[in-house]
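User: Round two. Same drill as before: sequence, then structure, for each protein.

Assistant: Same drill it is. First protein:
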Amino acid sequence: MLKIAVCEDEEQHKKILVDLIGRYPFETEYCLTTFEHGFELVEANRAGIKFDIIFLDMRLDNEDGIDVANEIRKTNATVRIIITTSLIEYAIQGYSVNASDFLLKPLPEEKVFQILKKLEHDIRQSKNNFHEIEINNERVFIKCDEILYFESLGRKIKVTTFDSEYEYYYTISALEKELDSLRFVLCHRSYIIHLKNVKSIKTKTAILKNGIMIPISSKRNQKVYDAFTRYMAGLME
């Protein structure tokens, strides 16, 4: 799910931007949070809410958007920041905080949609290459190709790679919805396997490339076999 923030102290511009984002045909589920003040956005970021996209006004009431962006960058290096401003010279300053783009007010629908399309694509591609997890308010990026399987441990998920293990708070049902269904498959109520790193499928068992055997529940056996067959066929195309 994409986490989007709008930080704008002018109610008119905030309403316009929120409306445009609401009308954009996202291919991914998203949630939108609005802020009137920059310090509120910074506090949310410090509290562990890691946004994927932030629309940030350069001139907030008694606050400098660049200062706000710099604070956010200290703990969130990957967030896409879109500068919104009435003056082009302020937009240029945005590049000092590695802004992804800028919008000049009044906000044009075509430009907003263009930016959202590009960012949604870029973020999806990035997430296809890396799996992002959060451990103790720190983002950890794991190469998807190195993931063997995910295992549900009650309120936690354990992700196992060829040479490491990580545990973080999450649910297997939410994880299944986020992962690429062409590469990952739920084979058991407690396990999701990465098809790239499956050596073979036997009745009720997936044998991974490192020799680990993962159980497949009876009701999912055919689904897992079909997914593995499709994946292997795709490699040969």
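Second protein:
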Amino acid sequence: MPLTGPLDGESAPGLFPAPELALPATRGGTDRAARPGTAAARVDSADRWRRGHDAGRQLAFFGVEATEPAVTDLAGLLAGPAEGSVMGGTARLAVVVDAAWRVHVLVAELEARHLPTSWATADGGRHTVRTAYTRVLKPLVAAWLRGSTKHPPDAFHLDGRGLRLWFVAAGSMADSDVLLRLGPPAHQRVGAALAAVGLPAVPEPGPDGLAYRITGRRLLNRFAELVGDPPPAVPRVAWPYRG
């Protein structure tokens, strides 16, 4: 599959085949892992997000169904552990993830926004997913940087697509709760953005640093409604569901 994003005159990074997925544990169903290097390893975002929804379910305001994919959604990655860097009139995003399914989904999400993307292995069995340097990302990344320090801009807000990206990169299920890992530095504006979409939470220490815990049936249902159904590559035990 050719890379179709804006290349800004630079060589596009190689799009490696996604790492092979182990057969996932199931929770009340059977999952099929996407095969590396095939179209099945990527997500056609617009179709996948609409597929499988109950016809009678009302679309959530702020949810993934409410808007089309946009580059501004990537603020959700920056709220988590993603890092941005600027080079001249261009910028890039990079994020280290801990599971192969996250690579599959992030590559698909970034390609859905026409951003040339690659991945590489990192220490500890992790993977780095990164975009090419492109002018398209410069306004977003520059708004999040104060010198070399990441800092949410005044206009930062979240919706379903931003939350979905944050969860894909750094979210996990913990005793039925949702944990959203923060990237340094933690900032109260991120908590305010969560509260604005009906998810009040405070950061707490975790094994990988600070994380917001979403707990309680009402808030968990709200979160699941906002982020939508899981892509096919995601193990059932790794995704929040309405209950």
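The radius of gyration is 17 Å.

User: Perfect.
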